[in-house]
Every structure is written in structure tokens, then in C-alpha cells.
Amino acid sequence: MNHLAAFGATRSDIKPRHALLTPESHEWITQPDWPGAELAWLISPDLGAQLAMGIVRCAEACEAQPPAKGIARFLFCLEGHARLTDGTVLSPEDFCFQPPGLGGGLHFTAGAKAVVFEWRFLPRGPLPNPVHGSLKKIAGRPLRGDDRLVVQKMLPEDSSFDFEFNIMNFQPGASLAYVETHFMEHGLLMLDGGGVYRLDRDWYPVTAGDAIWMGPHVPQWFGALGRSPARYLICKNYNRSPLSPR
Fold it and tell me: According to the UniProt entry, where is the signal peptide (predicted)?
């Protein structure tokens, strides 16, 4: 038992429009559509979100069934390996996007761990094709001209995609250029390093393994602290107008 749990404490904090979900409070469960796997679902519509985000881990080899009808899935491999139905193998820092009805299930090797996102897809014309790739093959771009803050975009910049998934890379001391407020929501997982995240009027120290949900119009800002770079994976609903169906 960790020292926080021993005293009934946690860094997790759930508010009406945002949430910080920290590892000491994860509840690991099994589900029929993920035979052999354990899951910690961190973000869900019950929280007020339009997406679900969870961590999947496999002590032994395990499976994931295809998403339900109308549901898209994005997976980012953290540890071990996952194999797609077409035989493609995902290693750590590889990813895949499965549009509704086009992508099949997944097979995980023993010791695998991944973060998975699922959401009700909003089509704009024909569905995009499945996508898989490796983060190490994606060039980073300075965000708004700041070479200390680099973004790696994992999905094509194409209006047929209704979500985007990016890796944000911060050098020590780098920060977002301003406090952002917009109608899109975010799901986020800290991968490395740490810093301070502002959500509404709250300020949270964050570190690797922490997850965040940011609802629509929540003021948000991050600054990296410490001697090592900070990275996080972040998604947002995209290519939608404020009046798009929820």
C-alpha cells in the first residue's frame, strides 16, 4: 500500500468541469470485451466527458474485441507489444486509430500496457481509413514559434477525422504561451517529467502517470518544472463546430 492510501489520501481531484486522476486511486477491473486484461477507466461520459480514456494492462497475453457500433478507438502503446488483426505489431510509442467498424480487435503480449481512447465518432462524409504509426517517425513542430515546446501530431490533418491526438514536448521551464479557453475538451496522460497544470482556478502539480480531463471552456495552462523534459499525450475533439451533435 502506498503512503497516500495508507492515510486515506489521494492527489486525484474531481470537479464539475475538470478532473485530475492519479495512479494511487486507479481502480483496476476486468470487462468481457477485454478478455484477460485489467483496465482502469479514468475518463468517461459519467464524468461529463464525450470520450472514454483508460489504461489497459496485461499480466498474461490478452485480447480486446472491436469497439461497439459507431465507436472509434485510438491506442498508444506504453509497454510490451500489441498486434492488430492485419498482423501489424505495435511496440512502445507506436499507435493505432480504428474508425467505427474498420479495424478489428487487438492482441496484447504478456506485460503489455497501453492507453486507450474511445468515443462516438462524428462522420463528415466517408470514414477515414485505419491509421497506425510510430512516434519516433513523426517530426516535431515548434508550437507558435517556440522551439522549447514541440508538438508531434499522430493523425493526418484531414477534416474526415473528428479527434486529434498529439504529443506535447516541453523543455524544462517551457510553458504554454497563454491560458487557453475553448469549446473543445481534452483527455491527457503525462508520459515523462512534470510541472504545474492550471485548470479553472486550481493549480495542480503533475508527474508521469497522471491523467487529466478538461471539459469545454475550462481555462487551462501548463508549465514544465524540474531538470528533465516533460511530455504528455493529449487528445481533443476536432473539426467540429460548437453546434455539432454531442
Answer: none
Domains and CATH numbers, the chain: 26-124 (2.60.120.10), 136-237 (2.60.120.10)
Residue 1 has pLDDT above 60, yes or no: no
Q: Which residues pair with 240 in a beta bridge?
A: none
- What is the per-residue pLDDT for 111? 97
Which helix (H) or strand (E) segment holds residue 64: the answer is strand 62-64
Cell of 9: 489520501
Strands 146-153 and 211-214, by their bridges, are unpaired
Does 176 score more than 60 pLDDT?
yes
Percent of the chain's residues with pLDDT above 70? 98
Residue with cell 504561451: 177
- Cβ proximity of 47 and 13 under 8 Å: no
Give the C-alpha separation, 201 to 31, whole Å. Answer: 36
Region 40-54: mean pLDDT is 97
Distance CA 155, CA 243 (A): 24
DSSP secondary structure letters along 161-221: -SEEEEEEEE-TT-B-SS-B--S--EEEEEEE-EEEEEETTEEEEEETT-EEEE-TT--EE
17: nearest Cα among 217, 169, 224 = 217
